[in-house]
Structure formats: structure tokens, C-alpha cells
Amino acid sequence: MSDQDDAPQIYLVTPPEFELSEFPDRLAACLDATEVACVRLGLATRDEDRISRAADALREVTIARDVALVIDTHARLVTRLGLDGVHLTDGARSVRATRKDLGEDAIVGAFCGNSRHDGMTAGEVGADYVSFGPAGATDLGTTPQAEAELFEWWSMMIEVPVVAEGALDPDLVRRLAPHADFFGIGEEIWREEDAAESLRRYASAMAS
């Protein structure tokens, strides 16, 4: 998962819950429909058996298409499950220790809400990317939005790649595309009947 100087890339996030009998095929259709840089396994469950079975199924899909697969939060499962890295959700707090545990080759990303300070700290201690969000407005009043100004400032001042995620729509993607390296797209497409076609629309918005 690397930054590029041209159009931003898609960072695809799984639903928090899915059926193993169906979802790998939906994922495969999305990866075949448009270029994806990375997939994040973001199951809400803490059941390691369910997580492991999901990781095994998705890894077959991503390896066949040379797409990186990372896991949300569970850094200690990365090596055992043969994954490419981890997406940490506690800002910068776990980045240094996780980088030491997983080594330099693993992808270590950090979700930092809307905090510039956490983002800068995460980058300084070894994060490969920093994620801010929700980038769009949500109905959850307790969740502060990561405003467009944050992405504009980051893209001018900081070299660490930045991911915009949460409550995205194609218009917002178009506005943020000059300032984001990746868009974390998940529920935005999975709630649609044809997720692959929905993902194509987001890819078109990123390119425009």
C-alpha cells in the first residue's frame, strides 16, 4: 500500500458483519471491477475463530489479485493469519509497539479521528498511513467530523499518506480527491445491491 502522486486510490473496508458463504464473491466482483490498493477486514466480532475463517476466505480473493489485506485492530493475529498488516484505531498510542512487533515490512495504519496531533505523532513513530474520519456528516452527533481543511492542510504539510473515510459520497470524494491519497470506502457500497457498480462510481469520482 503506497502513496502515488496521481489520482487517489481505493482502500476497501469490509462490512462489520457478513456471511462467509456470500461475501467473498461480492469482494471478488469489486476487485475485478476496479483497481483497489488494499482491503481491510473490519469485522465487529471479537470471536477469533470467526475472524480467522473470514481472513482465510478473503485472503484467497486478495492474493489472487495481488491486493494487500490488513485487519482492523487485531495486530497479534497478523502473522498467524498471513495478513499484510493492521489498521489501528487508537490514534498513535499503539503504533510504535506494533511496528516493533510486526517489523518494517508490515503495513501499520492509524485511525486518528480528526486530530492533527495524533496523526503527526502516528507518522513520526512509524505509521505507513494515517486515516481521518468521518469525512462526511453523520447522524451521530457524538462523532466529530474530519473537515476538508484537515485534509488540505495535511496534504500540504505532511508526507505520510492520508486516508479519508466515513460517510463518503461521490461529491465529497470529488472535493477531497486533490488532498487524499486513499479513500476508505465500505458501507457506502455494501448497502447497495450491486456493490461493484457502486465502487466504479466512487472510482470515477476520484479520477475526476
Automatic annotation (TrEMBL):
The lineage of its organism: Bacteria, Pseudomonadati, Pseudomonadota, Alphaproteobacteria, Rhodobacterales. CDD domains: TMP_TenI (cd00564). InterPro entries: Aldolase_TIM, ThiamineP_synth_sf, ThiamineP_synth_TenI. The keyword Magnesium does not apply. GO terms for molecular function: thiamine-phosphate diphosphorylase activity. Transmembrane segments: none annotated. It comes from Limimaricola litoreus. Pathway: Cofactor biosynthesis; thiamine diphosphate biosynthesis. One of its GO terms (biological process) is thiamine biosynthetic process. This is Thiamine phosphate synthase. Residues 10-177 form the Thiamine phosphate synthase/TenI domain. Keywords: Thiamine biosynthesis. The keyword Cell division does not apply. One of its GO terms (cellular component) is cytoplasm. It holds the Pfam family TMP-TENI.
